[in-house]
Amino acid sequence: MTVKELLNNQYSFKNSDLFKGLPDEVCSILNHNIETYTIKAGEFIFKEGEKPKGIYRVKNGKVKKFTNTKFGAQHIFYLCKENEYLGYHAVLSEELYPDSAAALIDSEIDFIPETDFKKAVQISHLLSQRLLKNLSHEFGVFINANKLLAKHTVRERAALNLLILENKYENGNAQDTEIVIQREDLASMVGTAKESVVRMLKDFKEEQLITTQRSSIFIRDYAGLVKVANLI
């Protein structure tokens, strides 16, 4: 298994094909009232404790999923990229959102109302099967995210999160993948203070593993970063 395959299997959702190949009747229900919103970086899509109104798909951009600590800080535990769906956990469980979602960068978000989504689930056995499979996989992703904090050092977590981010931002076109992320958000993903992340990035630059340009990060030694992350 390659590093990218490992990252996809252990740290990424697999719900981008959730609606692919569904019968026309089901697609018609899902698309009937769909709306697309432009969300600026930092703006909320939904907030922890709110009642769900529907599900969301990242059409363009990146979305961070996070919870707030008792000190008011954010803990980012997952980053959604283009074509990934979010918000359906709370809709299916008929509970309040257990987390918040906000745009990491300027994004376009599709919204499907709860009633349409539930109706599609009720009439489509295929969609129900996919949701069950995705929910089971995503539980494993959440467990792996928790393991990062328990089993890896800050340096290892910083390296691993950069590899995860590179996988999220890679578009297959550019020679160098540009990872655009504020240092506060990266610190939240790593689970440490902003100052620690800044020092870690400086170390990685001195080791010629990365370069930076303002809020952008470019990986220059992928294999070296994999070694630092103690991934394999």
Set out the fold topology.
Elements: H1 3-11, H2 24-32, E1 35-39, E2 44-46, E3 54-60, E4 63-68, E5 74-80, E6 85-86, H3 88-93, E7 100-103, E8 107-113, H4 114-123, H5 125-151, H6 154-169, E9 179-180, H7 183-190, H8 194-206, E10 210-213, E11 216-219, H9 222-229
Give an account of the 3D structure:
By secondary structure, this protein is an alpha+beta fold. The chain has two domains: 13-148, Jelly Rolls, CATH 2.60.120.10; 152-229, Winged helix-like DNA-binding domain superfamily/Winged helix DNA-binding domain (Arc Repressor Mutant, subunit A), CATH 1.10.10. The chain is 46% helix and 22% strand. The strands form three sheets. It has a four-stranded antiparallel beta sheet. A four-stranded antiparallel beta sheet has the order 2-7-4-5. Strands 9-11-10 form a three-stranded antiparallel beta sheet. The radius of gyration is 18 Å and the shape is globular. The N and C termini lie close together (10 Å). The relative contact order is 0.15. The mean pLDDT is 94.
Terminal CA distance reads: 10 Å
- Total strands: 11
CATH domain topology of the largest domain: Jelly Rolls
Please compute the radius of gyration using only Cα atoms.
Answer: 18 Å
Which strands sit side by side, in order, in the main sheet? 1-8-3-6
Structural class given helices, strands, pairing?
alpha+beta
Helix content: 40-55%
- Name the CATH architecture of the largest domain: Sandwich
Spell out the helices and strands N to C: HHEEEEEEHEEHHHEHHEEH
Largest sheet: 4 strands, antiparallel
User: How many separate helices?
Assistant: 9
Q: What general outline do the C-alpha atoms trace?
A: globular
- Measured by DSSP, the beta-strand proportion falls in 15-25%
